[in-house]
Recover the amino acids of this structure.
């Protein structure tokens, strides 16, 4: 049965709509315990401007957040705090592990430093670097947005495991810092480069 | 005569001094653990050392020429004369216990807790001798030289939160 739709009506899936809304209004919880936190702040500030990706509203209470960005070393005394904050956040929620220390312990292979928070809490996205540049954090948020589009459902099936991970975009060079985009950036931005291989 | 010289002379006459040395003008007096509280009280009342700046500890395990295992360091300041003096006490296992200075100096409270936490030295008469930096459940004293740098696996045995249950 063919239905004639007027031009101003769009048909979509509810899941897609919900994910679209969610991914463009991430509310980060800044769990900044060390030097990476400074880059996290820089990302939120006007130069890098996380607001362009809809994620500028940093809240310091877990109950208002849906994206935990763990930036810095986590020691074994801090870990219960981290887990508690994670548990206090509402579903749907995501976690970014920012920096070498947070993802693997980094150079701090000592008795008290947890060797990667993913041993104790779920992590959706890792950012390498010591510290990662704000562009890398922005890239991770873009990747997370892709992941939300590809994976999440309206009612939330986050707990479901065994679902294949969507392939991550290649790390694009974002033309933020350099004044003039180079020719390679322009080709990436025109769509034939980095975006194409998804 | 500076106050610290007077302290050294008087303590020597009273037979409290085990050893003493100077380094760049700073006087360090080694005393016996039993006499620590008595000497500290005299420092406070007789010579006016009204500030206890720091209490810390050194583990001399495998240290060249060292005779004792742990060396406690007490650094005092007389805020009136602006003179400083260091008292040292050496301890050996199994008697890792010394009198607490909290009744004399309030500032000793947290510093003694830190020494207890990281070296396992007990302070007799401390009002609240609990760990201060490490989690309560920690069983070791990590600044001892025989404690492995990467620990004994304490950091790996913590509860795990999964997606399903959070
Ligand atoms: S990864 Fe580097 S910048 Fe980040 S917390 Fe560790 S040491 Fe600091």
């Amino acid at each position: 049965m063919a239905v004639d739709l007027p031009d101003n009506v769009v048909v979509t899936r509810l899941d897609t709509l919900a994910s679209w809304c969610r991914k463009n209004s991430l509310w980060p919880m800044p769990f900044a315990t060390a030097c990476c936190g400074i880059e996290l702040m820089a990302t939120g500030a006007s130069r890098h401007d996380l607001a362009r990706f809809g994620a500028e509203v940093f809240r310091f209470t877990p109950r208002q957040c849906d994206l935990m960005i763990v930036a810095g070393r986590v020691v074994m005394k801090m870990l219960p705090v981290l887990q508690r904050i994670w548990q206090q956040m509402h579903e749907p929620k995501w976690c970014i592990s920012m920096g070498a220390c947070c993802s693997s312990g980094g150079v701090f292979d000592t008795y008290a430093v947890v060797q990667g928070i993913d041993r104790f809490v779920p992590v959706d996205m890792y950012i390498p670097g010591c510290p990662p540049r704000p562009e890398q954090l922005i890239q991770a948020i873009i990747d997370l947005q892709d992941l939300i589009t590809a994976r999440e459902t309206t009612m939330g099936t986050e707990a479901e495991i065994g679902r294949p991970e969507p392939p991550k975009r290649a790390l694009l060079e974002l033309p933020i810092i350099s004044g003039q985009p180079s020719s390679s950036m322009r080709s990436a931005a025109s769509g034939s480069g980095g975006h194409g291989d998804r | 005569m500076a106050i610290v010289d007077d302290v050294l002379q008087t303590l020597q006459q009273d037979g409290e001094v085990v050893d003493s040395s100077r380094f760049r003008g700073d006087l360090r007096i080694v005393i016996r653990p039993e006499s620590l509280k008595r000497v500290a009280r005299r420092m406070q009342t007789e010579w006016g050392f009204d500030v206890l700046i720091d209490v810390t500890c050194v583990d001399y395990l495998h240290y060249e020429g060292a005779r004792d295992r742990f060396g406690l360091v007490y650094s005092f300041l007389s805020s009136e004369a602006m003179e400083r003096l260091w008292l040292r006490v050496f301890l050996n296992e199994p008697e890792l216990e010394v009198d607490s200075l909290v009744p004399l100096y309030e500032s000793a409270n947290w510093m003694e807790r830190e020494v207890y936490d990281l070296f396992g030295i007990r302070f007799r008469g401390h009002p609240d001798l609990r760990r201060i930096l490490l989690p309560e459940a920690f069983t070791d004293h990590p600044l001892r030289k025989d404690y492995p740098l990467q620990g004994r696996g304490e950091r790996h045995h913590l509860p795990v939160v999964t997606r399903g249950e959070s």
